[in-house]
Amino acid sequence: MKSIVYIVTAMVLLMSAACRTTKKINTVISKKDTATTLLADAHADSVRYINEVFRSVEKNKVDFNTFSGKMKVEYWDKDGKGPELTVFVRMKKDSVIWLSINATVFSYEAFRLMITPDSVKLLNKKDKVVQYRSVEYLEEIAQLPFDFNTMQDLIIGNPVFLDSNIISYKNSGSSITLTSVGDFFKNLMTINKENFLLEHVKLDDINPKRSRTSELNYSGYAPTAANPFATVRKIVLAEKNRLEVQMEFKQFIFNESLNYPFAVPKNYSVQ
Prior knowledge:
The chain is of the alpha+beta class. The chain contains four helices and 15 strands. The chain has a 15-stranded mixed sheet that branches. A hairpin with a 2-residue loop joins strand 1 (66-77) and strand 2 (80-81). The protein is globular, with a radius of gyration of 19 Å. Mean pLDDT is 78; it is low at 10-42.
């Protein structure tokens, strides 16, 4: 179970720019790191500008009742390119996340995963095994504070993990880059200046004993009634080994009636 949940977690672990936007900004702007500002260099004006950017980013958050999508997933790890996957996603807000993971080359469903606010269940169809874990298992895999709501926001593309400790910002042509330092990472988040949509995130571990780093690029924003939705996402995670994941949503629908089947055959063993 650990390996497949790790891949799923990696697929969505930085979809949303790794930020928390609800805190009041109490920042110190570093003039040394700030290349160009739209306003004067005065501290008050800088803080005011960052607040405006944050509010604009938050307005782009996607709200929904239900969501379903189909995505093509390709990944590369230390052993080279893995099998291409087709992943079907269904979600009911604050209730359930359902994933069907298919090995494209063999045209069969390999895994089915269901996450609720308090549990994680996995059907391994190849080995005829079902596994049950608490939702805290996601945190064990991600090695970060990670719960149902975080996973939900990551899949839908909403910001998570942005710390309010903004140390600098940079205005460079068509984009704005905010640099923050949180409990786990130094975060460089690049935002399109015209529409305030996320473009790129780079996270570097602040723990000197670790060398985790990750990058996320996303594009292919499609207009929806629930705000623009990024259909293409590229993730690179590196520490001792390197994992690259490329995801492309081929289909997605908001707010239709859905079901979340998870019947366990009698001949499956429990692990």
